[in-house]
Amino acid sequence: MSLRVFLLCVVLSTHSSLSQAQQTGENDSTVVYPADYFTEWAPITAQDMLSRIPGQEDSGPRGGGGGPGGNPASGGRGLGSGSGGTEILVNGKRTAGKNNATSSLLSSIAASQVREIQIIRGTSADLDVRGSAQVVNVVLFEELASSSIAYEARMEYVHDDTIQPNASLSLSGQDGGFNYLLGYERRSGYRHSLANESSVLGDFSPNDQVLENRTQDQPTDELTANLGFELGSNSSIRLNALYAVNDGDTNVDRVTTDLTTTPPSYLVENEVIPQDRTNWELGGDYELSLNNGDRFKLLAIANEDDRINTRRRFQIFPDDSRELNLYLNTDSVTQERIVRSSYTTDLFDSQSIEFGIERAQTILDSRLRLGTLSSTGTPSAEHGGLTPVNVANANSRVEEIRYEPFAIHNWQINPQMTLETTLVYETSEITQTGDVSNKRDFDFVKPKFDLRYDVTQAFQLRGTIEHIVNQLSFSDFVASNDEEDEDSNTIAGNKNLRQQTQWRYSLNTEYRFADDIGVVNAEFFYADHSDVIDFIDLSTGPDDLRSARGNIGDGTEYGTNINASIRMDMIGLPNLLVSPGLNLQVSEVTDPFLGIERRFRLYQRGRFTFTFRHDIPQWRANWGMQYFDRTDGGMFAYDVTDFEFAVGEPRVNFFAEHIDSRGLTYRLDIGAITDGTQCRERWRYEGHIASTPLKELEYRCTHTGVETSLRINGTF
């Protein structure tokens, strides 16, 4: 078949009438996609359905916890009143969890169970989340009894000729007032990268070359459970559980060629880094609706993350003997306990208020042991048989008790305009014990105003003003492993960190084209930051140069995000969904080492994305590509003795799917087709960056190579 005939067949096969157009719900801000809208694409899961909606194919929802989620040691603590991004609900409810989020469950829900998908652009007291730019509500059929099993088998092939198996299995269903979703997933966690580094001395004469081969093999086994019980016509309870084990090794082979000697000399090293990690989460959510329409909600979550990481570095000699010269062990346990309750009532026909309180306890127990090869000192078995090195703040316990009473007022000013006003008072106590002792109290008032105006049914304006308090990362309080710099090994902790805060102003415009052709939105934002967190100087003298994360002063940030998602009906391809996106942004803060005005640490100047999905219903197939490229030249990082900037090649991904007559989906993914090489240039100085000459200039590039996977999934 000639190329011309093939292309003609593709065009003819896709030039079909579009599925049933979107419907508008009772609220003009809500767009409803009924199940039969997706029929021609033969979706298998709820995620397949969502990916066909313009503006949602790459929305990247943050989950159903209503907050940042993630590891609380890294700043993702508590729930908050809303993430500001896209939230996912199932039957109007969020998951009673953070790490086990609703967004990850959509691939386990069979498309046959979905009655409709709602895109909720307005605000309402009836929503289970607040403060989100958009809410996606997946509504399931209310059958008396139904169940479905979803499964997936995946083989991953990476560029070092390694093949890794992955699999997942889930059971979902409902029986009267009881619904459930049980899942198991096995992820290989295999990664391979090759790094090349070359450096010159301060006079630009050759210094050395480094070749590093890194292999990470850390498979994850994860069990999840989500249960829902309708206790009656006016009350319900949801339970959530997660248990995961992530054990494995990272192996690093490194060859350093010293170009300052004649002939060049070689240093061959090998690192073995085993990791043992387990994490679990339990959550419960109770809701009671009273006869007068008021609602009471109670949510409780507990989670724990245990990690042990041991780094051993060996020097390999020509006779293949080896000598241990570095031992670095990090052991941390992070625990979180959250209780949140609220009561919602109508003040008037067009106004309601929700008030409540959240209490969160977060604890990080962190221990670090460093041993080096030394001719002096006494070797220790606890330090791998090497000489212990005293690391400041290596053993600490950090605990935060935080209370957040809040009130959320929702006012339907008129049929086209809503105003949601949030007032949160945060009070917390952070205590640190162990190698250092410190206790501090913090108090913040956090108002937020969210005004939405539906100029027409298609055109919406949204303006927000918000005082944001960024939560502290507990890992910055204690000494930790420096994975980015072989010359430093550890990063110091800082017991005096304060929260970074900002007043953020944003204006968002969204236009939805008629007949479901697509959607375009543009956001413009400006933020005034206080107590910006970056590296600060903790040096005690020229012979003791040290730095740690700290507060460097005030800063500003502004920019725009422009996104579109358009069906190419104008060229006769209604099933070709094209989605470009552009981010442009600027930030400014005073550098504490040089006193210059610069961007925030590793702050991107901008980013361009372009994705498309082309469905061919007659062939029961679809394919597409993703292009990601950031604007290079502005990602700088400054420290006491060096600074660096990062650049990178664009990343291009390709996928193709076919669904057979039995409902099995075969999907081929090829990632990083263009290699996606990421490079870093680091300038090291003889001493302090502000007062000493250049010592060394390093240029390092890391390649991960093409990533290929083949997956088969289905439901029954």
What is the fold's blueprint, element by element?
Blueprint (H helix, E strand, L loop, with lengths): L2 H12 L8 E2 L5 E5 L11 H5 L35 E5 L23 E7 L13 E7 L4 E14 L3 E14 L2 E10 L2 E12 L4 E12 L2 E11 L4 E12 L1 E11 L6 E25 L5 E22 L5 E27 L2 E22 L14 E3 L5 E20 L2 E18 L3 E17 L4 E11 L10 E2 L8 E2 L9 E12 L5 E13 L2 E5 L9 E5 L3 E14 L4 E18 L6 E2 L7 E11 L4 E10 L4 E4 L3 E7 L2 E9 L5 E7 L6 E8 L8 E10 L3 E9 L1
Parallel strand pairs: 3-5
Antiparallel strand pairs: 1-2, 2-4, 4-5, 6-7, 6-40, 7-8, 8-11, 9-10, 9-39, 10-13, 11-12, 12-14, 13-14, 14-15, 15-16, 16-17, 17-18, 17-19, 19-20, 20-21, 21-22, 22-25, 23-24, 25-26, 26-29, 27-28, 29-30, 30-31, 30-32, 32-33, 33-36, 34-35, 35-38, 36-37, 37-40, 38-39
Explain this structure to me?
With 716 residues, the chain is mostly beta strands. It contains 2 helices and 40 strands. The chain has a 22-stranded antiparallel barrel. The model is unreliable at 1-21 and 59-70 (pLDDT under 50).
